[in-house]
Design a protein that fits this description.
2 copies of one chain form a homodimer.
Chain A lengths: L2 H8 L7 E6 L13 H4 L3 H8 L2 E6 L9 H8 L11 H8 L8 E11 L5 E3 L7 H14 L2 E2 L2 E7 L4 E7 L30 H18 L7 E9 L6 H5 L3 E5 L2 H9 L3 E2 L6 H10 L6 E6 L1 H7 L3 H20 L4 E5 L16 E6 L13 H4 L5 E4 L3 H8 L9
Parallel strand pairs in A: 1-11, 1-12, 2-14, 9-10, 9-11
Antiparallel strand pairs in A: 2-13, 3-4, 3-7, 3-8, 5-6, 6-7, 12-13
């Protein structure tokens, strides 16, 4: 028995409502005027809420580890990000609304261009349009429906990106990327990283050959590169683990996919932050846990666009009253990982974490920012402990032992 | 090898003395004037000590987990509270001063009332008086002394509560409650939750049948309900793990029982906090580790009696000079869990933890309170790490590795 088994045993279903608001990549590094984007932004609503909350900092995985969106979210959803690894292919598949089964092996694909010598000249086939991509995927699907009894499902993403799902009994992951990652190189075939995956590798490589054959007259999309070949992780649902009835509000496919993976219902939402809070309000009676995902804090961080990140933080701040109006029993506001504009990338820095409920020891924090939260009453903790903390504050966890 | 094996290997016996003072449930939530009971109470002695100590906050189990007294104490005594689980029946038995052996299976019992159709009409037999309870237990004990070679020990608790101990080789736990938890239902028999416990279940269910037979002419206590059927945990002693010679000073049976489970000597004490410090002084030469338990901080918390909790904290504060007079090498003052008066129950909030020795980095904390301790030099840590910290400060831990 470990702590997670115990939380599963202690959790109970109640009427109380929890909102987990994730401003993706919101944590930053000091830059303009020596301030982080959160420090620079004018955030009266977040500050006011922080002043009557208890705050802290979370590590998504462990100090120094920069997580991808998968492990960062898995952790925030209460799963052990070391044990529950989610392959990139699976994330991509879920992100374009492919309903995966536990038998599935999923891969990210790029359409690419190769020359007459079979050398890659463009790893993204000149970023073909999404329409061209859709045509190419139809072409592939027509000629490749099944390989040795394994069903093959091909779906377009945006521009040059697509997803292949292999559906069949006894498929195994532990397979290398089939992508040399460089132009001027030949197409690469997949390799087995463990003996059990040899048969699956054979299927994947047959797919590559069949795709090259089907695409040989096409230009510029005349080749495929496969990456992130991964099996569905088969996670228990948040309902099973925590007795929650969870809903996800997210504008980007991958996050909706992540939410589905842990058994959340994904509800309809418009594109803006204000729209997302409207979706929250519209679905508020039907669920008791809400994951609201704000993407653009991360996007502008990745772009290295400090000013745009400041603006989106201010836009989020402007929507906080919409959230408070609903009067949830528990509010948590945090990031999944930091994406400092100065790095234009995810980073290992801890996330500000705000917790509001009627059962907290309000601390001395007065502003929503990374450095103020260092003094917060929650201290610094693994993001994986956020869910038990929210459950406790919603009175959804029974006592452990007598 | 894990950290606990390492601590066992490193610990040495020395002359230095450690006092662990546990104010049960002392942690609170802000209430009167926005203050916790610790913040509201006038505690000059605790504050003065805090100002020359290093402070922090502990989680008994993990963030968000509300512990019962069992796991909360096990953790403070340096044992892993996830691995070392103590069943409810064992705690109840300890609570009424039954001397348990490692062969024992202990259960909580309720006297209950059933009607002519065998349906439960009152799960507590109208809360019979403790005297009636004592008579019923004598009656049961007279007719049931032994079942198939297993000794049966029946002891009254308060009102309708009693404890049954089955003592015999090869008894196993993993047994369901024999209690439907509802009126209008039939008596429930125990069931085996794992194959190994089948034989023990047979003994338990024979006891139920014999009890029904013995009580059939009694009213209202004509039936029994058994819960929390649990085996003695057989923990290694604190002497074995930490080379300590520990003594317990506690006014409530359950805490004396918990202390015995980890091999402490339980010494005589009067009822007041001042009496407990006298007992500490009287036994100070014979031991090197003292667990002093103050119960009423928890009791008043459970009662939701903020003012009485404040008063008992002030009473404790008044006794601190008695403790300081002994000049222990290490003093730790903490709670086992929080019991906020506003919740009238145990809670998941961390415990203030004060550590005094001559080898500390004194921090900025000036007052003994939950929120002041957030800024403490010890930070926030699992309560299980308190014992190694005390051992180190008593110079009772050798270096790890070369």
């Amino acid at each position: 028995m470990n702590i997670q088994d115990i939380i599963k045993e202690l959790s109970i279903s109640t009427e109380s409502k929890i909102v987990l608001l994730v401003a993706d990549g919101v944590g930053d590094l000091p830059s303009k005027e020596g301030k982080t984007t959160l420090e620079y932004a004018n955030t009266p609503n977040l500050d006011e809420l922080a002043a009557r909350s208890v705050c802290g900092l979370t590590d998504p995985i462990s100090r120094g580890i920069t997580p991808g969106s998968g492990p960062a979210h898995v952790s925030l959803f209460g799963y052990d990000p070391i044990k529950c690894q989610i392959g990139r292919g699976v994330l991509e598949a879920l992100g374009i609304d492919i309903e995966l089964t536990k038998d599935d092996l999923a891969c990210r694909g790029n359409f690419a261009t190769i020359d007459n010598n079979g050398l890659i000249t463009d790893r993204r086939a000149g970023r073909i349009s999404t329409e061209t991509n859709q045509k190419m995927c139809s072409l592939l699907q027509e000629s490749i429906n099944e390989i040795d009894g394994v069903k093959v499902i091909i779906k377009p993403g945006k521009e040059h990106r697509f997803v292949v799902v292999f559906r069949g009994k006894e498929l195994e992951d532990g397979i290398s990327d089939a992508d040399p990652q460089l132009t001027g190189k030949k197409i690469k075939y997949a390799e087995a990283l463990r003996p059990e995956s040899k048969e699956s590798v054979r299927i994947v490589n047959q797919f590559i050959d069949k795709a090259l054959e089907a695409l040989k007259e096409q230009h510029p999309a005349n080749a495929v590169l496969l990456r992130g070949i991964a099996k569905h992780p088969g996670l228990p649902s948040m309902n099973e683990l925590f007795k929650l009835k969870p809903a996800a509000i997210a504008t980007y496919p991958m996050y909706r996919g992540l939410a589905k993976l842990v058994g959340m219902d994904v509800v309809d939402t418009g594109e803006t932050i204000a729209d997302e809070f409207v979706a929250l309000k519209d679905n508020y009676q039907q669920y008791d846990f809400f994951y609201v995902h704000i993407k653009k804090t991360d996007s502008y961080g990745e772009d290295g666009n400090y000013d745009a990140k400041v603006k989106i933080i201010e836009e989020l701040d402007g929507c906080i009253p919409q959230l408070l109006e609903l009067n949830p029993d528990v509010i948590a506001i945090t990031g999944d990982h930091s994406t400092p504009a100065a790095l234009s990338a995810h980073s290992w820095h801890p996330n500000p974490f705000l917790l509001y409920s009627r059962y907290i020891r309000v601390d001395e924090v007065k502003h929503f920012s990374e450095n103020e939260f260092v003094r917060g009453g929650l201290g610094r903790f693994p993001a994986m402990e956020a869910i038990p903390l929210m459950l406790a504050n919603a009175l959804k966890l029974n006592k452990y032992g007598a």
